[in-house]
Design a protein that fits this description.
This is AP-1 complex subunit gamma. It is a peripheral membrane protein. The protein is an alpha+beta fold. Helix content is about 50%, strand content about 10%. Among the domains are: about 440-585; about 730-845, Gamma-adaptin ear (GAE) domain (Immunoglobulin-like). The protein contains 34 helices and ten strands. The strands form three sheets. A five-stranded antiparallel β-sheet has the order 3-4-5-8-7, covered by helices on one side.
């Protein structure tokens, strides 16, 4: 006996009555079998009922693909009941990935031309849901005709279908431009809202359409939109579409969005809508969420168009009121919008600084992060003390996720707007004490350079750092700075004469014990131990007592597993054993360092490179394998002649001890120089700069790798062993705030050698990370590319990244240079390859 097929209502009741999933699957499988049998029999009267049941099964997640062709048959049927279910099935079972959807194109075209509104509505709904690019191109003309039909029901659906077509095929914009101006005169809410959405899509996807609608006369729509919005604000448009006392907020929001697009970078349109925007901003009720939505869109429109200054101040004040709203979402939107406006309307946003600072105490992490970003953007020279105090209080209580951003922001603000050096030092010390593990990598170098350049604050700084180190040795950047400062100015610490701090009596044994504690702590990084070991070594010339304790500690690390520490300990031991008479001169204090601007740093880097390279032998061809880098240049034929090697000198004992390639001109041991200038390289770097002492022309040249603190010697302290030829600097690259400058030096002793210092500066708001610079020259040259000073170029014109190129040009041929830059900026990977052909003639003649 054949079980009869169930009706749709009975099928729903039976499926819902199934107690287990297995029972549900059994019911559906039986009914699907009946549906398949009915489709095979070709029963035209009950086909729509069977397809309706299949669509319900599809909505439950079961396969229903075998009903696709039945949808096409029902759509082609003349009966409305069949078409209704057929179109519904097409919208659910068909999509652009299946070729079957193209088979309904003719059926939709016929139904659009029938003249029956309900059938036209079904066809338009299906076309706007599953219409592919091919279908849109074939049916665009029919839809354009329906836009001007007398019935509002069909016109509303035709407008929405036109929006779908423009999104699929922007090239169809010319077809729908003429009806838009006429449709704006409609009083029907749905048609008007759809028309504004259609014009918005046309303007966003077609520059020609944007110019078409921006015209002042004829096709310009700005006056019409202004009139519609003014009617909504003053008299109301339709009471049935009002929400919480706000007249049709959805239509207002859409009009404001379209006005924002039309007024962007267009002076005439902006002037037309200025008065209206002021009226909307002042008359909209803010007690309801619908009014807040309209106000927010008004603010966005004022920000994007060329609005008047007073109007922009009004927009900022609206956002300031949003900050006082109890809704977290509204406060977040206000903070985000103010952050966008802070660059263009800084003074207006500054008025709401107290409210922004209050938002730092928000429990919600997203709100506090936005408030932190805005607070950092509001810091300037007039409020830096108050804002820094608020930010430091926030740093002490904020979540770990925000500490890195907050600490970096405070350090950058202090560097840019510090009123005094002492305040700057105190601010950095407090940040390092509170969140030292979260600061940027260059914080240690910046603070040591700052302290080194403030001679009047040496005693104050070393006492503050010693006290902070005695309380906590877990913050590694703080420990590194403190160790450096104690090593340099330990004698000032022991004197105990500092009027700016409380009296502090420190004994030599206490200082040594504290540094030993740092060396033995399991929290100390290898770099931190290196700072502490070097500080102990420097204290050996500053303490009045016996150095046996220091020698014992240094000798212990001569067998350390860490290669860097072991190397330093062995070198220091050698100083104690064989060169004790030179130890006092080598371990002298760092010279004062004045922090200059970017141009001064470039000049300093180039001159230091010249002093360094003047005594170095040009590299052998084996060291110049970078000349064919990436095969970027096709060089001229001919091989460069290597320079003659310098004769070894028996007096180079110290240089061989330090394992450095330096030539000593005199065989007799010279007297120790009275001072040694150190260069700015991070601790334990593999490339070491040259040190110059008095009488550098006849004295041996010492290298500072024993003691290279993160400092740079001032140019006034470095004697010039030869005259430097003046070659102008050259800027070769600039993009999104990243600049690349070249400075040149040609040592007179080796005229074939050219030293090029590449300096990378970042003036943008975001750091440039993973920065790599590679160079190539023609094959007639020899090129050696030294290691860069870092791979991160800090934002806001922070410390630049420098890299040295040594180019040997024995034939004095015109120099061509090709550079390849790879880096990450604003979250995007960038690669640039360019050739530098405009090098000054002095670089090769």
């Amino acid at each position: 006996m054949v079980v009869p097929s169930l009706k749709l209502q009975d099928l729903i009741e039976e499926i819902r009555g199934a107690k287990t999933q297995a029972q549900e699957r059994e019911v559906i499988q039986k009914e699907c079998a009946h549906i398949r049998a009915s489709f095979r029999d070709g029963d035209p009267l009950h086909r729509h009922r069977q397809l309706a049941k299949l669509l319900y099964v599809h909505m439950l997640g079961y396969p229903a693909h075998f009903g696709q062709m039945e949808c096409l048959k029902l759509i082609a049927s003349p009966r409305f009941t069949d078409k209704r279910v057929g179109y519904l099935g097409a919208m659910l079972l068909l999509d652009e990935r299946q070729d079957a959807h193209l088979l309904i194109t003719n059926s939709i075209k016929n139904d659009l031309n029938q003249g029956i509104q309900v059938v036209q509505g079904l066809a338009l709904c299906t076309l706007s849901t599953v219409g592919s690019a091919e279908m849109c191109r074939d049916l665009a003309t029919e839809v354009e005709k329906l836009l001007l039909q007398p019935g509002s029901y069909v016109r509303k659906k035709a407008v929405l279908t036109a929006v779908h077509m423009i999104r699929k095929v922007p090239e169809l914009s010319n077809i729908f431009l003429p009806p838009c101006a006429q449709l704006l005169h409609e009083r029907h809410h749905g048609i008007l809202l759809g028309t504004i959405t259609l014009i918005t899509e046309l303007c966003e996807r077609s520059p020609a359409a944007l110019k078409h609608f921006q015209k002042e006369k004829g096709t310009g729509v700005v006056p019409q939109l202004v009139q519609i919005l003014r009617t909504l604000v003053t008299t109301g448009y339709s009471t049935e579409h009002s929400i919480s006392g706000v007249s049709d907020p959805f239509l207002q929001v859409q009009i404001l969005r379209l006005l924002r697009i039309l007024g962007r970078n267009h002076e005439e349109s902006s002037e037309t809508m200025n008065d209206l925007l002021a009226q909307v901003a002042t008359n909209t009720d803010t007690s309801r969420n619908a009014g807040n939505a309209v106000l927010f869109e008004t603010v966005l429109t004022i920000m994007d168009i060329r609005s008047a200054t007073g109007l922009r101040v009004l927009a900022v004040n609206i956002l300031g009121r949003f900050l006082l709203n109890s809704d977290k979402n509204i406060r977040y939107v206000a903070l985000t919008s103010l952050l966008r406006m802070v660059q263009s309307d800084h003074s207006a946003v500054q008025r709401h600084r107290p409210t922004v600072v209050e938002c730092l105490r928000e429990v919600d992490a997203s709100l506090s992060r936005r408030a932190l970003e805005l607070s950092l953007a509001l810091v300037n020279s007039s409020n830096v003390r108050a804002m820094t105090q608020e930010l430091q209080s926030f740093l002490e209580s904020c979540s770990p996720d925000l500490r890195a951003d907050c600490a970096s922001g405070i350090l950058l603000a202090a560097e840019r707007f510090a009123p005094t050096k002492r305040w700057h030092i105190d601010t950095i010390l407090r940040v390092l004490t509170t969140a030292g593990t979260h600061v940027r990598d260059d914080a240690v170098a910046n603070l040591t350079q700052l302290i080194g350049g403030a001679q009047e604050l040496h005693a104050y700084s070393v006492r503050r750092l010693y006290s902070a180190l005695a309380e906590d040795i877990s913050q590694q950047p703080l420990v590194q700075v403190a160790a450096w400062c104690i090593g340099e100015y330990g004698d000032l610490l022991l004197e105990g004469s500092c009027e700016e701090t409380e009296p502090l009596q420190v004994e030599e044994e206490d200082v040594l014990a504290l540094l030993e504690k740092v060396l033995q702590s399991h929290m100390s990084l290898p770099a931190t131990r290196g700072y502490a070991l070097t500080a102990l070594m420097k204290l050996s010339t500053r303490l009045r007592g016996d150095n046996n304790r220091i020698r014992q500690v240094v000798s212990i690390y001569g067998s350390c597993l860490d290669m860097e520490l072991q190397q330093r300990a062995v070198e220091y031991n050698m100083l104690f054993r064989k060169y004790d008479h030179m130890r006092a001169a080598i371990l002298e204090k760092m010279p004062l360092v004045e922090r200059g601007g970017t141009q001064d740093e470039e000049i300093k880097e180039s001159k230091e490179a010249q002093l360094s390279e003047a005594s170095l032998v040009p590299t052998e061809p084996q060291a110049s394998e970078l000349l064919d880098l990436l095969d970027l240049l096709d060089g001229t034929s001919g091989a460069a002649q290597p320079p003659p090697p310098l004769e070894p000198s028996p007096g180079a004992v110290l240089v061989h001890l330090l394992d450095l390639p330096c030539d000593l001109p005199s065989a007799s041991p010279p007297p120790a120089p009275s001072w040694i200038a150190l260069n700015a390289f991070p601790l334990f770097q593999t490339s070491y700069p040259v040190l110059w002492g008095p009488g550098a022309e006849s004295q041996p040249i010492f290298y500072a790798f024993l003691l290279h603190w993160p400092f740079s010697a001032p140019q006034a302290l470095s004697p010039k062993p030869f005259a430097i030829s003046s070659i102008p600097n050259l800027r070769v690259f600039e993009r999104e705030g990243l600049q690349l400058n070249l400075s040149f030096v040609r040592p007179p002793g080796t005229p074939a050698l050219l030293l090029i210092t590449i300096t990378a500066i970042n003036t943008s708001e975001a750091d440039v990370i993973h920065f790599i610079c590679q160079a190539a020259v023609p094959k007639s040259f020899q090129l050696q590319l030294q290691a860069p000073s870092g791979d991160t170029v800090p934002a806001h014109s922070g410390l630049p990244v420098t890299q040295l190129l040594r180019i040997l040009n024995p034939n004095k041929a015109p120099l061509r240079l090709k550079l390849r830059l790879t880096y990450n900026h604003f979250g995007q990977s960038v690669q640039e390859i360019f050739e530098v052909n405009n090098l000054p003639m002095e670089t090769w003649q």
